[in-house]
Amino acid sequence: MHTVVVGTSGVTASDVLAVARGGARVELAEEAVAALTEARAIVDALAAKPDPVYGVSTGFGALATRHIGPELRTRLQRNIVRSHAAGMGPRVEREVVRALMFLRLKTVCSGYTGVRPEVARTMADVLNAGITPVVHEYGSLGCSGDLAPLSHCALTLMGEGEAEGPDGSVRPAAELLAEHGIAPVELREKEGLALLNGTDGMLGMLLMALADLELLYKSADVTAALTLEALLGTDKVLAPELHAIRPHPGQAASAANMLAVLKGSGLTGHHQDDAPRVQDAYSVRCAPQVAGAGRDTLAHARLVAERELAAAVDNPVVLPGGTSQAFGSGGGRVESNGNFHGAPVAYVLDFLAIAAADLASIAERRTDRLLDKNRSHGLPPFLADDAGVDSGLMIAQYTQAALVSEMKRLAVPASADSIPSSAMQEDHVSMGWSAARKLRTAVDALTRVLAVELYAATRAIELREGLTPAPATRAVLEAARAAGVRGPGPDRFLAPDLAAAESFVRDGRLVAAAETVTGPLR
User: CA 479 → CA 434, 454, 482, 501, distances in Å?
Assistant: First the structure.
């Protein structure tokens, strides 16, 4: 099994995906253990002093003015976890929780949090045992980090609350830890706070959305090319020199992908045959411009994610050297900051939802053209076998339209909202967790929208008798039919066909089939 080693300098997106989705094992690098030990010595030195230090010997949030004596500090750290584990609603997905835990471990190992090495080791042990804390949908405002979700994870480390075992059953966390020989941790100064105060949930969901959308944008280029072919459109608009004079890199990549899929097609270039038209409709002709803008949005979001992956998000943080109100051994200090605010991540999560909604919208418009006999250039109404007796794909497009409409609602930015909390101490929040949750829904919906376009386009191409599709198109058709995405014929129960098309898009077989001819798509 693949192993991810966590050091002091952060992790990669592929590391997060390997742990969250692939179940990779986690180990701590020696440099991480050394950094943890050094930072903990600073916290211990500060804890021994009479001066109050936020997170070490004070309350939290609006209660930070109270100095907490040594005899109450273990209880203080335990209580912040218990009280903040206040989530409600459905459980979030296992992969989200694993990403959440792993990214928190990444920050802990940076050496800026003051957590003891044994706590970090326990975090790794829980991940490696396949124990997944029960985390609920609601509880994060995306500021002071994803507090409630992270608190539910910390609760499991303490042997409290509920978690899901490797077999998928939900049981008391204490039982699961005992079965795997993991001792519950007793949190000391600052540790409870350090386990809660990060953007890890929203970042984890951003990284998974980026991976999914990268595949879906390639998928959209393929389905758009198939639709252009089915509508007897022209591929001249995809010429590289046309896109070079508007030098958006995503647009050029999308056009190149479509051109590669269409190479050798016997269907393109027939737009002047029976029903002359000067140009193809925008939904076909402008496909690279719309998909390309989304690709460039992905590139910006990826840059933000990479910066956040390199960050150590906590409040307060442990810093070596310098001047402060409170000093530890070797001149180290603990400083409050605002790095936990989720705005940078929240903005791009919302931006991606907007781009995904627009990509779905243009795909739905292309699908509708395939089904409308007045605009499909010779195809039967709704691609039906015997129109009137058969309804064809009429209601498949209804389903697609419903998904697109939902995506437009999901494109309303969560990050434009803010709601005060903690007695107005936390008076502006990012709502980044909410942005991430709705983006996950949007990504699922986009997958289904593209599946419907694929289903319609492959059927339409097969109805173009006497014309030969491109080699890449033929490869897609053969793979789709082998995957249970059935072709033309009398009306039948459509839901299984659409589910097969969705699976074909979601797991990458659509792109893989095209790439057997085109080579790697951009």
Answer: 37, 12, 5, 11
* Rounded Cα distance, 494 and 394, in Å: 11
Residue 206: name the closest of 316, 315, 322, 350 by CA: 350
Q: Which residues on neighbouring strands pair with residue 390, listed in sequence order?
A: 387
Q: Say which residue the tokens 């045959």 belong to.
A: 273
Q: Is the bond into 172 cis (omega within 30 degrees of 0)?
A: no
Kindly report the number of other CB atoms within 10 A of residue 273's CB atom: 10
Rounded to an integer, what distance in angstroms lies between the CA atom of residue 132 and that of residue 237?
50
Question: Rounded distance, CA 2 to CA 190, Å?
Answer: 32
For residue 232, the 8-state DSSP code is T
Q: What is the pLDDT of residues 425-438, one digit of tens each?
A: 778 888 999 999 99
If you compute the radius of gyration of the chain from its CA atoms, what whole number of angstroms results? 27
| Structure tokens, 95 | 């992969």
Give the whole-angstrom CA distance, residue 519 versus residue 113.
46
SS (H, E, C) 3-28: EEEECCCCCCHHHHHHHHCCCCEEEE
Contact 165, 133 (CB under 8 A): no
Looking at residue 52, its pLDDT comes to: 82
Q: What is the pLDDT of residues 272-308, one digit of tens each?
A: 556 556 789 999 999 999 999 999 999 999 999 999 9
Q: Is the peptide bond before 413 cis (omega within 30 degrees of 0)?
A: no
Identify whether the C-beta of residue 23 lies closer than 8 Å to the C-beta of residue 97: no
Q: What is the 3-state secondary structure (H, E, C) of 187-236?
A: CCCCHHHHCCCCCHHHHHHHHHHHHHHHHHHHHHHHHHHHHHHHCCCCCH
Annotation says 112 is catalytic: no
Question: Which residues, at least 6 apart from 402, have a Cβ–Cβ distance to it below 8 Å?
Answer: none
Distance CA 251, CA 244 (A): 9
Q: How far apart are the first and last CA of the chain?
A: 30
Q: SS3 of 107, please?
A: helix
Q: Do residues 226 and 462 lie in contact, with contact meaning Cβ atoms separated by under 8 Å?
A: no
Closest CA to 113 of 17, 61, 16, 187: 187
Angle value at C-alpha 416, between 415 and 422, nearest 5 degrees? 70
**In one letter, which amino acid is 325?**
Q
Is 88 strand, coil or helix? Answer: strand
Taking the C-alpha atoms of residue 507 and residue 276, their distance in angstroms, rounded to an integer, is 39
Gap between the Cα atoms of 307 and 311, Å rounded: 6
Separation of alpha carbons 383 and 310, rounded Å: 51
Cβ–Cβ under 8 Å, residues 522 and 253: yes
Q: Considering 54, 112, 217, 455, which one is annotated as catalytic? A: 54
Distances 394 to 66, 383, 405, 515 between C-alpha atoms, Å = 66, 8, 17, 31
Q: At what angle do helices 249-262 and 287-309 cross, to 10 degrees?
A: 130
C-alpha span between 81 and 156 (Å, rounded) = 10
325 has pLDDT over 70 = no
